[in-house]
Amino acid sequence: MPPAPKIPAPRPQANVMLSRVAHCLYWMSRYIERAENIARLLEVNLQFILDFRGYDDAHLREHWGSLLASSGDQELFDKHYETAESRSVTEFFAFDLRNTNSILSCVFAARENARMIRDQISVEMWETINELYLFMKSRSTADVWAAGPYEFFQDIKRNSHLFQGLTDSTYSRSEGWEFIQFGKFVERAHKTARILDVKYHILLPSAGDVGGALDTAQWQAVLRSASALEAYRRFYVREILPWKVAEFLIFSDSFPRSIHFCAAQVDDFLRRILGESGARPRTEAARASRRLLADLQSLTIDEVLKEGLHEFLVEIAASLEKISDEVVQTTMFYQAESTQEEQQLQQQQW
């Protein structure tokens, strides 16, 4: 039996937000960010295969298998698809409503959460989500391959950026803003960890083992997945090395998609939401957030690699989910309507 939700310390009445609204704002934001990050992963992995046309079937299966394994969706994929290749994986992660983490599922879920609170968000925010929903509804895997997948994924990213920009420009800096930002940065940190975890097994033990076009291209792909290639080059001004890529995407305190940067934002908005104004955290979520941030501020990449990059990233993801779960339990007593029925209905109408 799950533990009973903890009741947070009351906030001033003017700032108290209905849990239904908080829930929808939080998940609307997470789902939009998730859709963008899935588009990033698919785009870069497809581009990587185009750059190395010599991949045989075994290498292709390994390539896509690493993405499926890291996403945690390998079993679901194997249940519905025979072979992991470019089209089947694109279908699964972009349009398959049986996959609740597909781009289409995320866009449907974001729109449903936005629809339930239309009076709480700006007209511009609603129109952007609805346009993205209509765009996804009018596309299929066949359309994407006919027109070129690059443009499709660029459209997903542009719509996500447009939504975030309009949110910045049109949403009051109220308690609702805190839930939107908290959801966005939790999701972004989690997905940056996923992006690194997809390729963690490529890290080599010493500089003497690194080199060659394939190795460099793989780590360029990791950076491109997070739109970090230019920022990395400005920071290091040298060749791309695996441990430097990991260091940048984990520990940078200025790059907006690094785990450290996102964790600092998560900690900030978490303290606002839970009313954690003192130096000593009162809630378990705040304590977990402080521990995560302290680790990211004190550890070095050498220490992380020595203990295991994969294990470190798994621990990061677990910490983020622990933080998120407690905030949901303590502030969102309302159980939002399930979007599963909505998604099934959309699938029947497809």
Account of the 3D structure:
The protein is mostly helical and 350 residues long. It has one domain. The protein is built from 17 helices and no strands. The relative contact order is 0.13.
Topology:
Elements: H1 19-51, H2 57-71, H3 74-80, H4 86-94, H5 103-116, H6 123-137, H7 141-147, H8 149-170, H9 175-198, H10 213-225, H11 229-236, H12 242-251, H13 259-274, H14 284-298, H15 301-307, H16 309-331, H17 340-349
Helix pairs in contact: 1-4, 1-5, 1-8, 1-9, 1-10, 2-9, 5-6, 6-8, 9-13, 9-16, 13-14, 13-16, 14-16
Low-pLDDT segments, ≥5 res: 1-16, 202-210, 336-340, 345-350
Beta-strand proportion:
under 5%
As for the number of domains, it is 1
Would you tell me the overall average pLDDT? 84
Helix content: over 70%
Could you tell me the radius of gyration in angstroms? 20 Å
Counting helices, strands and paired strands, the structural category is: mainly alpha
Largest sheet: none
Number of strands: 0
Shape field: globular
Determine the N-to-C terminus distance: 38 Å
Q: Provide a count of the helices.
A: 17
Taken in chain order, the helices and strands follow as HHHHHHHHHHHHHHHHH
Keywords:
350 residues, mainly alpha, 17 helices, 0% strand, globular
Short description:
By secondary structure, this protein is an all-alpha fold. It is built from 17 helices and no strands. The chain has one domain (17-349).
